[in-house]
Amino acid sequence: MSLSESCAKASSTQRRLKLALEIREFGFDVMPLDRLLNESDRLEREEESEELILRQRAEALRRAQAEMDESLAKLDRIRKAKRMVFKKGREIPDGGPEDSVVSSSESAVAKEAQAGGAFGVVDWEAVFEDPELADFDFGTPLAVPESVGGS
User: Fold this and answer.
1) Residue 130 maps to a domain
2) Domain match, 103 and 69 both
3) Is 115 within a domain?
4) What percent of the chain has pLDDT over 70?
5) Which domain covers residue 79, as residue numbers?
6) CA distance 100 to 88
7) Is the pLDDT of residue 38 over 50?
8) Comparing 150 with 88, which gets the higher pLDDT?
9) The dihedral formed by the CA atoms of 82, 84, 89 and 91, expressed in degrees to the nearest 10
10) Hey, how many other C-beta atoms are within 10 angstroms of the C-beta on 111?
11) 123-151 burial code (b ≥16 CB/10 A, e <16)
């Protein structure tokens, strides 16, 4: 390659050729591999440390969530029990708890009579506060069979 030919070439080509000659004559510097390996090890340790912290925080969050769920369930149970207390308090007649015992025994007698086939023994006006519903026909049979089943 003559000098006139090299002058005719582009300047970028000339730079590359000059650099190639210098590398051949003097060699070139390479970043030490140890430095890269050390940096990689440092980043690996940092990554493992952050993963451990993340796992610990996630476990703490799961425990806190479980505690919150437990507290919420307990609060719901307490509120439900409180509502039931007030509901039962409203259902007690003016005469006190004795009247509710009597009415429950009356209810048992009525159920027993119905089981025996006596469908007309229920005082519907006592069951329903609305007088219109008390007159409603609930399908009382006209004739009650003497026995159910056979032998």
Assistant:
1) yes
2) no
3) yes
4) 54
5) 34-91
6) 11
7) yes
8) 88
9) 160
10) 12
11) eeeeeeeeeeeeeeeeeeeeeeeeeeeee
Residues 53, 75: one domain?
yes
Instruction: Supply the Cα-derived Rg of the chain in whole angstroms.
Output: 47
Q: What is the pLDDT of residue 35?
A: 85
Does the pLDDT of residue 151 top 50, yes or no?
no
83 and 103 within one domain = no
**Is residue 11 included in any domain, yes or no?**
no
Instruction: Reduce the DSSP state of residue 132 to 3 states and report it.
Output: helix
* Residue 26 domain-assigned (yes or no): no
Is the model's pLDDT at 68 over the cut of 80? yes
User: How many domains does the chain divide into?
Assistant: 2
CA–CA distance, 55 with 70 (Å, rounded to integer): 23
Confidence of residue 87 (pLDDT cuts 50, 70, 90): confident
Q: How far is C-alpha 127 from the chain's CA centre?
A: 42
Does pLDDT of 123 surpass 50?
yes
* Domain shared by 86 and 69, yes or no: yes
Average pLDDT, the chain: 76
Say how far apart CA 31 and CA 131 lie, in whole Å: 99
Residue 57 and residue 42: Cα distance in Å, rounded? 23
User: Are 72 and 48 part of one and the same domain?
Assistant: yes
